[in-house]
Amino acid sequence: MTQQAEAARRPPLSRDRVLRAGVALADEAGIDSLSMRKLAQELGVVPMALYKHVANKEQLLDGMVDVVVGEIEPPDPGSDWKGAVRRRILSARRALIGHPWAAQVIQSRPRPTPVVLAYMDSVIGMFRTGGFSVDLTHHVMHALGSRMLGFTQELFDASPGPEPDAPAPASAGDAGQYPYVAELAGAVAHEEGSVVGGGCDDQFEFEFSLDLLLDGFERLRRQGWTSARRPQETSEAQEAQETTG
Amino acid sequence: MTQQAEAARRPPLSRDRVLRAGVALADEAGIDSLSMRKLAQELGVVPMALYKHVANKEQLLDGMVDVVVGEIEPPDPGSDWKGAVRRRILSARRALIGHPWAAQVIQSRPRPTPVVLAYMDSVIGMFRTGGFSVDLTHHVMHALGSRMLGFTQELFDASPGPEPDAPAPASAGDAGQYPYVAELAGAVAHEEGSVVGGGCDDQFEFEFSLDLLLDGFERLRRQGWTSARRPQETSEAQEAQETTG
DNA sequence: ACCTGAACACCGTTCAAGT
DNA sequence: ACCTGAACACCGTTCAAGT
Questions:
Q1: Are residues A155 and B97 in contact, defined by beta-carbon separation less than 8 angstroms?
Q2: Which residue of A62, B54, B136, B229 has the smallest Cβ count within 10 Å?
Q3: What is the per-residue pLDDT across B107-116, written as a single tens digit (0 to 9) for each?
Q4: B-chain residues within 8 Å CB-CB of A200?
Q5: Considering the entire predicted model, what is its pTM?
Q6: What Rg value do the Cα atoms of chain A yield, rounded?
């Protein structure tokens, strides 16, 4: 009765509503809290009702990834390849940051969804129309890796877990055992503009390595790099050039 | 009776034996098949017996990561920083490749174990003794990210899953929808030396982007880069130099 | 024909009962 | 004091029974 009344008040279930509820639940409660059962409860529906709109949990996660990737802004044409790629990737980063679970879920997918494939296709196109050979574009895409979607795999899960006030990764007590880590941690803690608590400026780090790669790509493109010449040889030849220049 | 006889035959349980059995089980059956219950069964022991040697499953996974990281060869002194770092990272890569689950597990850990911290400390040391400032070393470590431990996060799980003969990521049917992906896939399929099945040469891709980064690091080091000057400005200044040179 | 509750085959971990 | 079986609170998904 009450159940029926509630069902009548809510809009009918649809794949889209299921996916958006999944995204909302993962945003709020974390990806570990996302279960078919909890999602059904959130939607005021019996668990099995979900299976009419998604084949299983894997397909639910696929669809949720599509929602996030759908938030990435389209490429803006009419600028140099580097600026265009840079802007697009930083837009992807903004989308991913809004959904902290997304990076992990994307990497757990056994294959890209059509929406992700379309995004990758358009990024590849930006390199190709920017004057990159098929060969170089291929390796460049591998070098970008997950950075293409706006995230780098931090070595350890930096997401705010269930232990909010845990000791810092490199606490003072470990300074003796890990002198170089301590030196770095100390410098970061005193850095201007760093977040309270001694954290790193993730955006700066992201742009630092993104620009390092993009600059490297541009250098290779100008040299007409092909996979016949290994990058190491390339760099050595270039180092010689720089030294003499 | 039979149980007791079996228990008597086996060496007594220890933390080390539990960890090694966990590594072996994950190697053989995949990380998804690793459960406390199955691991106990593998050791001929009741599930609760494991909890005397590891506090919980999280600590089991931590210990398993330590086993893998322990396989990385120590640094060999007395060579230039780039060669030393390169060799060490490629050694880490060999260790990680032997345990396909390790990359995923490392990234799921909320914080580095002491063994991983010690490895990171020694890598930081290779940069510092190689002439890198604390500042630059910090950003360089971020840029390396998971590559430091020998793996890059491939955008999608390339590990041999439960569907061994599934269609290729970009099958011919999708060529029309994703023209640039198709172009790349076609080129890779015809590449010399590529594995049968059209896969990429992962080792080449890894070294390509590793060398791209290491070369970039060396360039910044020589320029005396500090975080006051952004990489982009650096590169633009350098581009002007290169163009005029 | 459609929907759904109970059931199945798992988890990690707690806890009290047994030796 | 030590060990461990049963139990708890969950999963994703199957399937047969109900409407």
A1: no
A2: B229
A3: 888 889 999 9
A4: 138, 142
A5: 0.85
A6: 23
